[in-house]
Amino acid sequence: MVDADGLLPLATEIAREAGALARRRREEGVRIAATKSALADIVTDADREVEQLIRARLAQARPGDGFLGEESGAERGTSGVTWVVDPIDGTVNYAYGIPHYAVSIAAVTGEPTPEAWTAEAGVVYTPVVGELFHATRGGGAWLGSQRLAVSTAADAGALLATGFGYDPATHAGDLERVRRVMPLARDLRRAGAASLDLAYVAAARLDGYFERGLWPWDHAAGALLVTEAGGVVTGAPDGRPGREMTIAAGADLAARLSSAIYR
Ligand code: LIP
């Protein structure tokens, strides 16, 4: 049995330290270290340095745990716990100096894939604003000491968020999905950090969110925030969130979003 309550304080402490490093490096000036899946898919020196800090602190505190990080890959552990980490979610915002990015850290048990894992604890920390969203399985979702709940009514239409892939070849499909869901919407936001989009659904700052192409580290912590705030997070019809699709909202809106996207 995993002590989820013991995982959250560690994730919180490390997220704050990692966020402070990310913010400091941003103020010092950011260098793009490389591009990845597409020219627009960048990684900065800070992404790599922040993930190294997180990975080292976790290994020091819990040497038997596994790790799955955006920049340094996967390593299986022996404890049954795997940490799923996006050191700077919203990398393009970060590189441009847009202060909307987050450190996302989740602890999961079971097979470390979104199709199979059980999220036990999650933290999404945005260092510029200083907001720390957190949740444990069965313990609710919180912003600081404020308990969170997803929105349940959107009479004027839903405030939705989405994102677009780094590969220009995917944009036509992404825009077609936007066209299909707009009859459900009052407006649409594209803020550039999936973990914060999910945290905002949990906090009822958004009514719903959908995006194709997310990696496990983009949604691992934020999805737990949403489900612990009374919402649902799905993927393709009857599927779990993943590369094909991530949909997050209260149950009724999530079903309507899925129907619109997959009709
Ligand atoms: C980003 C996501 C965002 C998505 C971007 C990118 P990164 O993650 O948070 O929602 O639209 O394409 O995947 O690359 O900043 O960690």
Task: Tell me the Rg in angstroms.
Answer: 17 Å
Q: Helicity range of the residues?
A: 25-40%
Find the count of extended strands (DSSP E, 2+ residues): 15
CATH class annotation of the largest domain: Alpha Beta
Strand portion: 25-35%
Number of domains: 2
The parts where pLDDT drops under 50 for at least 5 residues are none
The CATH architecture term of the largest domain is 2-Layer Sandwich
| Widest beta sheet: strand line-up | 4-3-5-6-7-8-9-10
* Major beta-sheet overview: 8 strands, mixed
User: Helices and strands: which structural class?
Assistant: alpha+beta
Straight-line distance between termini: 41 Å
Tell me the name of the CATH homologous superfamily of the largest domain.
Answer: Fructose-1,6-Bisphosphatase, subunit A, domain 1
DSSP summary: helix tally:
7
Task: List the ligand species.
Answer: L-MYO-inositol-1-phosphate
Mean pLDDT score, rounded?
A: 94
CATH-defined topology of the largest domain: Fructose-1,6-Bisphosphatase, Chain A, domain 1
Explain the layout of strands and helices.
Blueprint: H1 4-28, E1 32-35, E2 42-44, H2 45-61, E3 66-69, E4 73-75, E5 81-89, H3 91-96, E6 102-109, E7 118-126, E8 131-136, E9 140-143, E10 146-147, E11 158-161, H4 171-181, E12 185-189, H5 194-202, E13 208-211, H6 216-228, E14 232-234, E15 246-249, H7 251-262
Parallel strand pairs: 3-5, 11-12, 11-13
Antiparallel strand pairs: 1-2, 3-4, 5-6, 6-7, 7-8, 8-9, 9-10, 13-15, 14-15
Helix pairs in contact: 1-2, 5-6
Bound molecules: L-MYO-inositol-1-phosphate.
L-MYO-inositol-1-phosphate (LIP) binds at residues 70, 86, 89-91, 163-166, 192-194, 211, 218.
